[in-house]
Amino acid sequence: MLEIKDFDLIYRTEKGVMAALRKINLTINRGEVLGLVGESGCGKSSLISSILRLLPENAGVAGGEIRLGGTDMLSLSENEMRRLRGRDISIVFQNPMSALNPVLSIGRQMEDIQFRESVSRAEKRERAAAMLSEVGIPDASRRLRQHIHELSGGMRQRVAIAMALMARPSLLIADEPTTALDATLEVQIIEKLKALQEEIGCSILFITHHLGVVAELCDAVAIMYAGEVVETGSVERIFGAPRHPYTRRLIACDPAHIGDPSRVLPTIPGEVPKLYDLPGGCVFRPRCEVAVDECARTHPELYEMDAGHHAACIVARGEKS
Ligand SMILES: Nc1ncnc2c1ncn2[C@@H]1O[C@H](COP(=O)(O)OP(=O)(O)O)[C@@H](O)[C@H]1O
Ligand SMILES: [Mg+2]
Fold first, then answer.
1. Per-residue pLDDT for 127 more than 60?
2. Domain check: are 196 and 292 in the same one?
3. 3-class SS at 173?
């Protein structure tokens, strides 16, 4: 479905050209939910902006490929890309207000998003009401007449998710869509999302720092660190047998709480290196407790640990699984 190969992204800044994403390799299969995890500043948003081609002015693609269902996204025209964003890819951001128009009623916006469907306005309205009910909004027909400022934060995000799913996308990209919500609400929305994902059969790229959400919603996980993907595998492998020291620090501490939706990324000592000050060798080495001398010299590739489970660590590669 989505295939990212050796993708490199740079930002031009006053400090020079910074390699923000380096040799990113990632695949999402049809109908698969991939969780993208990593501390703030690791490049998660840069990666989805690259996929969507919504990059800031000072960004540049320095190499690699991004393909959606075989289409080379990096070579599409702006128009073709816009069409793709409306039809094949939907997006939910952390702030629902960025997707919603304050001056139009919710119903009007949900009708408009169905502009490609050749059905009557009344039918579109009915579909919109049905989708609102699906994401757990009671009294949907009344809600359709309201404006976004009349709704609570949780309701707004539900509307944003309903809008994103209305287009029945083949890929839904969600950048921390539930982070601003309280834990109970978050669980409810994730459950809805999961049910709708199964019904529509879309793939999801889900960014969150809630590990419980990853365990609940995702099939596969990619761990990012300082602009690189450092581990990928099934949710069972990543939570049950993480191999990269960074993943272990993030995840392995208390498996008993994996299902706890309020569980967020633990704070680990040190910080993500700045892009203008990346260490040579392994980027995680300055924070790593198991680093050996070679880690300062050799930049690790994603080595296969078990079938479908990769980690970029020479120490892990030397361990028995
Ligand atoms: N337009 C930009 N120009 C320069 N640096 C940027 C720009 N956008 C993001 N960055 C830097 O790129 C890195 C990754 O940022 P981001 O993709 O937002 O990470 P995340 O979403 O994981 O928090 C950070 O070091 C951030 O400061
Ligand atoms: Mg981000």
1. yes
2. yes
3. strand
Statement to judge: residues 230 and 116 lie in one domain: no
141 and 191 fall within a common domain: no
In percent, how much of the chain has pLDDT > 70?
A: 95
Q: pLDDT digit string (tens) for 162-184?
A: 898 888 889 999 988 877 777 77
Of the candidates 313, 292, 291, the one whose C-alpha atom is nearest the C-alpha of residue 301 is 313
What domain range is 304 assigned to? 31-48+77-88+175-318
Higher pLDDT, 186 or 214: 214
Q: Judge whether residue 294 has pLDDT over 80.
A: yes
Position 107 confidence tier, pLDDT thresholds 50, 70, 90: very high
CB atoms within 10 A of CB 217: 23
For ion ligand 2, residues whose CB falls within 5 Å: 44-45
Nearest to 282 by CA among 265, 266, 253, 302: 302
pLDDT of residue 149: 93
Q: Among the three residues 105, 133, 168, which one is the final residue of a domain in this structure?
A: 168
CATH code for position 268? 3.40.50.300
Out of 15, 21, 46, 276, give the residue to mutate to test ligand 1, the one with the largest number of ligand atoms within 8 Å of its CB. Answer: 46
Distance 179 CA to ligand 2 centre (A): 11
Beta bridge partners of residue 72, listed in sequence order: 67
Under 8 Å between Cβ of 278 and 42: no
User: Number of folded domains in the chain?
Assistant: 2
The gap from C-alpha 57 to its chain's centroid, in whole angstroms, comes to: 22
Q: Are residues 134 and 186 in the same domain?
A: no
Q: Which ligand is nearest to the CA of 40?
A: 1
Looking at 134, 168, 202, which one is the last position of a domain?
A: 168
Nearest atom in ligand 1 to 272's CA = 25
Residue 180, amino acid: A
Q: Answer yes or no: is 185 within a domain.
A: yes
162 and 190 belong to one structural domain: no
Is the pTM for the entire model greater than 0.85?
Answer: yes
**pLDDT for residue 227:** 97
Measured by CA distance, the residue closest to atom 6 of ligand 1 is: 11
State the pLDDT at residue 144.
96
Q: Do 135 and 204 share a domain, yes or no?
A: no
